[in-house]
## 1
Amino acid sequence: MRALLLAGGLSMLIALLGTPLFIRFLVRKQYGQFIRQDGPTAHFTKRGTPTMGGVVIIGATVLGWAGALAVTGTLPSASAVLVMFLMTGLGLVGFLDDYIKISRQRSLGLKARWKILGQGIVGVTFAVAALQFANEKFRTPASTRISFIRDTNVDLAFAGATVGLLLFVIWANFLITAWSNAVNLTDGLDGLATGVSLIVFGAYVIVGVWQFNQSCQVLASAGPRCYETRDPLSLAVVAAAITGACFGFLWWNASPAKIFMGDTGSLALGGALAGLSILSRTEILAAIIGGLFVLEVLSDVIQIGFFRMTGRRVFKMAPLHHHFELQGWGEVTIVIRFWIIAGLFVALGVGIFYAEWVAG
């Protein structure tokens, strides 16, 4: 358990102390945020604020995680390496997107086909690798079964291993794309996505520790309620490192933000959340734990779908936080209230997770 505290503490310190150094570098290079002209007018004052802060989040997470393993003398597990790969891979795609926006002073970065291609390469590589690296108990980091709180009886390999692999790759990439876009849409107000991510990844620390304490592989007398997750404690350490990095970054990202995470951070955090949900066998439960992210996506889907059908809008502007901005709510008020809602979703998700174990 020392690794949990070390990973969280180290990543928080690195993000807290490293962010101002990165801000100075970005200011010197004049890498500032481009603001859309059709957005809320209050955002125009944010033009030129340094972006690509996700570099700090990713760097602090990797260094905090690696430092904790080095101090405790622990070897990295396949599950942890896969989540780190997914996080940094999608972060690289986001970095390229941010860099193009900044260098060309426009709100559009990578062309859609290149962005999809980059996300696809990272996602497919993750999905294929997640079904490899079986341990001595023949368990791979992921399984072809759809999971809620643990694997269900819905097996994507119902027609054989090849079909199962193909369907799993499609399913995993759907989750990766959905979560990365969800965090990206939420990242529209100072500290909003960072704070919500902090709460959600904190919940995955709890989930990982609980699964480890009730693991089928750890407990000699494992009963029917034990968890099949291959490396639960390793996943908890990764979640702790991400939580700590978000804590440190939030100090500088809270209103008025001195730096934005950009697509570099939002795609990386969304990828990490998708990876944790897949490897901890909580794919559907993640939609409850990350319910605030889901609300933001739904508001965008509803807005686009309703407008195409009727020519009218449901919200003043989507995603949801912009609707409340145009209603006259203050930015800090929206962020704090959305943090509270995120906390309620996390409490509900963790409560369901625990209640399922109690009920057996």
## 2
Amino acid sequence: MRRRMVKRGGVLLALAGMAAAGIGEASAQEKQASRSSYAPVTVTEPLGETIARMKSAKPEIMKRHMDFLKERYDLGKRAAKGVTMSRGKPVQEGVRVKLPKDVTWENLAAMTPEEIREKELFPQGFMPLPHPNHHEGGMLFPKFHISEIKKHEERDLVRFDLDYDLPDHFLPEFPPPLYLTTRPDLGDVSRGNLITIANYYELFNGILNPKQIEGLRLLVTPFPQQQFNQTEDRRSEKPGRGVTCFDCHVNGHTNGATHLVGDIRPQEFRHRLDTPSLRGVNIQRLFGSQRALKSIEDFTEFEQRAAYFDGDPVIATKKGVNILERGSQVHFMAEFQALLDFPPAPRLNIYGMLDPAKATQTELRGQEVFFGKARCSICHQPPYYTDNLMHNLKVERFFTPRMIGGRMASADGPIKTFPLRGIKDSPPYLHDGRLLTLEDAVEFFNLILEIRLVKQEKEDLVAFLRAL
């Protein structure tokens, strides 16, 4: 059979072989050819053939990836009793990362990183999480978001080649509330609505100034993106207007949408990205996957010039990049984002610490662990629980590098200290979403930082995090 080659996101895919095998490992020839940092502008395969081929491969790709997730995690729906996000969605509880056979968390924590690596006992769920099809990559949205956007705007965010992977109960509530630093008296300014181009003016007129309203308009306006545009190398069946900033950062928060970072090559080294919340960006000083951007203005401009197109300005030009004007449009968008507040935390005092008169004994014990034995506060300093720095956890000392679902699991490098305020509203956790619950996060850092917390200390720490 004659094989035709097409390149996506810096990786060559052998069409005939890949249609049958899904996302199999690339051949030596393909790996050699994939070393280019550039994607081709000219695509030789007709769009109809691309759609037919990828639709045919999709069920097997998704089955393999979902089987992979089930091997790593307990994906059951188990809500914590009496614990909800800000608008009432239940918070999932329990450690969901599966352990190797005959190993307990206590056994594991007693070992050195070298012993864990040599015995290959590092839990698979603590390894980097690949994209559902890492060779392909691209923006993926949860089905609930796709459905609601289609209802509001008749804009279709369905991909013909892939579906989103993590179950809904591990994702943030939808739509999330939106709080403004300038109008705390209003509570949820969205009033339970998904904010879109169709309703932003009605919801915010009289609350924001004209600059901020214009900034919000731009944040909910669709612009072309790598997978959603009018060209023959898109991944939406019909030509589309594109995506909005709020398609990922829904209502100024997050819906768990995923993508691959645009600033790493080759493809297998690109990190999966768990969309971070925009709440509290006014107190943050590092942005972008490599944290090279020092202001929310930098981040806003970079997103539409580069991140929307996998960091490829040539492809961006082809697909219709939206060049924002720095002095007005970027400034307006950034000014609105700087108003996005964290959710209320009634148990915290003005210093960001628990008020003993309002907190439970479990939460107070957890606070002692956080600032004491666990040493969390070295990086996560109150009142917003970040130090605005980068830290290298050196997770790679616990395992040998390997390919996992097309993702090269090796050194992650320095990662940003994300704010912990409102953290129960923002699952999953870590920069690539590999940790599904706060319990998973506590076990991960207990092992990585070699703290050796006991069971009660872990439970108390989770209770404190839920109160932030």
## 3
Amino acid sequence: MKIEIDVEQFARDIKAGKSIGGADGALGLLIKQLTEAALAGEIDSHLAQDLTRNRKNGYNSKTMKSDHGSFELDVPRDRNGNFEPEIVKKNQTTMTSEIEKKMLSLYALGNSYTQISDHIEEIYGVGFSKAAISAVTDKIIPMIQEWKLRPLEEVYPFLFLDAIHYKVKEEGRYISKAFYTVLGVRVDGKKEILGLYLGENEGAKFWLSVITDLQNRGVKDILIASVDGLKGFPEAINSVFPNTEVQLCIVHQIRNSLKFIGSANQKQFAKELKAVYQSFTKEEAEMELDKLEEKWGKKYPIVFTSWRNKWDNLSVYFKYQEDIRRVIYTTNIIESVHRQFRTLTKTKGAFPNDDSLLKLLFMGIQNAQKKWTMPIRNWSLTVSQLSIHFDGRLDKALNL
């Protein structure tokens, strides 16, 4: 039997200014409704399987305590007295909503509200509206705010920043917005997402706000930052952390260069460009860049202007050994996170507001970080080399 959850009172409570969570929050009423609906589904299923002339026999009322306050729960009875509810046991007086937990679990896997409703109805015999599901998933928003404000480590050997774009509705129309993921590698070699930022107004001012946020949350030093070539970011990071070396992502630079190369020449140009970024030394790379420009410069001057203007930040990795080079020359380390984002959002063409997108991206971050149980490859050797290159800056963090 499908039971529709009435969320009108919940909506009225929220509109009247009542909080969603907490001891007296409006969500407590919704949990009561969901639980009683699930119990109704359970007893219907029980009676359908009972071959005797068993039937419903009213309710027992008991006080339940939850994270969202206490409420009176009406538990259905059967005439034979053999109905044993699963979602709330006979002697159980405290609970966290199993339906709510299941709902959030399904949401974290990228299921749509319709899919979640179908799954819950199949499991519990309960059907409810998109508004009810949205109210429960909105519990993620305070978690996001708490996560955004959490203290960070004092020192990060590596910092990476990259963007992913989505269509989000604003003032009645859908526009493309960039969401920037900031990933740090801690002194123990493990990855951590430090923040997620909406880049509505790109440029030095925006980047400065990102770096200042990291500093305000406790970051005192960053050794090397790898970014995707965004204008103004190297200057912004060095205005707050003047000793941080900024490496522009080589992969992004290659992709941007090929956009300006004629399709007939792209394959050959890309092959010859390898001699530049795969050189053993900065000096060798500069010689190869000169040779490449001599051959292609007149035809594609804008490409070489870009490489020359950005060369100081594109060539940082040449001073380091292979283990460090492999980590910093590209922002691909973030791509695993963005792949998780795309998995969660692949069925969504666009989003009605920023929060609806942020909820999903936050769940993607939690999914990604569950897998980060080991340091990055050859970390012991890498951190030893860093301690030499950046004399004294890792001593406190490494307890030296």
## 4
Amino acid sequence: MKVYDQEVATRRQVDTSPRSGQAPEISVFLPVYNEEPNILPLHAKLDEALNRLGRSAEIIYVDDGSTDGSLRILREVAEQDGRVRVVALKRNYGQTAAMAAGIDAAQGEVLIPMDADMQNDPADIIRLLDKLDEGFDVVSGWRKNRQDKLITRKIPSMIANRLISWIGGVPLHDYGCSLKAYRREALQDVRLYGEMHRFIPIYASWVGARVSEIPVEHHPRTMGKSKYGLSRTLKVVFDLMTIKFMASYQTKPIYVFGSFGMLAFFVSVAAGLYAVFLKLFHKADFVQTPLPILAIVMFAVGIQFLLMGLLAEMLVRTYHESQEKSIYAVREKIGFQERES
């Protein structure tokens, strides 16, 4: 008997699979990266939570290039559960790309992402849906009693969440919580790049979505190894720069480019006048005052690098969206043929 069979043999199954030719009401998708010991107990809890809903649902596992036995177990789960589909990426692209793959594969009216490390609780899905039914388009989970390390996880996250709320204009306590619920239309125009998955509520808000937040359970990790560290803080800072730029200057980049240009021009004029002043009143030749020239050169180099970075961000987005380029590559799909036929 396979591993999955042993796990579910004593549980009563409730068929919440979508009928042939019909889209499911709910799509739950989970990025998976080296979570072999967590998959079966997580799927058991997810199965129980979806059975209680009484709504048609699909479960999409996105294997993000796992190097352990995660994909093997996902194959077994897909064979035994008709609601399960698996998208296996060719390599490890990161959580944002895996989330994008899940969104692209999902067919439900409501999309629910969550982590596969057993720290999110599938029992909270019904609470997200209840809040969504109040008229909201996006409901974000808030790990109010977060079970993580204080110094390396909770404090940096608290600071980052406040910065993101301030810059993005959407006041949420916990942007890093993967457990959320989205109406499909709220994600239609969202394009994900880099490490931008945490900013999906901001993107949705920009297109008019109503965003809310509710506290959800958060469990300590008991199996597997965390994939995140303090290095993510620096990525968040860079992402915030991009978010601010895209929010303020996406349709009017001349404002930011022009502002930096005027600032550079002011420094250039000030430095030139200062050099002339030294020449006329202190009899100092220009070659004796290298500091103004050095300041101009270094300032110009700094401006060039910053503007080149912002320009490159715009070019990358244009490249992907105009040509419909994907940010991930799929190795195989499991369980799709039956659904499509």
